[in-house]
Design a protein that fits this description.
about 140 residues; 5-stranded antiparallel β-sheet; alpha+beta
Length: about 140
């Protein structure tokens, strides 16, 4: 089945894709980048994962960490969950190290959907290296 066949139903209408159901998924870390928030300007490091198996294969999930002192607990959790050792020197080192050492690596990620202001969001609740799958 082509990507286009997956995106459209038999009537040529776009398929509805809701949130990814809560659970554990095999995923590959595709991208890591620093971006400013469009309103506040606060920089955040964003991680983009692609689910690699099952009915939700090719769907993507994102997680981000704001570059603020109050989020250091999350930085430490993401760092160790990705299997990294030691400690980053600063925000740029955090992003650069994750990019260089973890891009295209396979992980088992946990996701959970939350609702905010009438919209559903998928949050990554856990990340652990999948040692049975080598990087691409």
């Amino acid at each position: 089945m082509s990507i286009f066949q997956e995106a459209f139903d038999s009537n040529g209408e776009a398929r509805e894709t809701g949130p990814i159901p809560d659970g554990e998924y095999s995923a590959k870390l595709l991208d890591i980048k620093e971006t400013p928030h469009p309103v506040t300007g606060t920089i955040a490091t964003s991680l983009e994962f692609e689910i690699t198996e099952g009915e939700h294969a090719r769907r993507r999930v994102w997680d981000s960490t704001k570059h603020e002192d109050t989020f250091m607990w999350k930085v430490a959790k993401v760092w160790t969950s990705l299997g990294l050792k030691g400690m980053p020197d600063d925000w740029s080192d955090f992003t650069r190290s994750v990019d260089q050492k973890c891009r295209n690596m396979h992980y088992e990620i946990g996701v959970k959907t939350r609702e905010s202001n009438g919209k559903d969001y998928t949050n990554i609740t856990s990340i652990k290296p999948d040692s049975e799958k080598p990087p691409f």
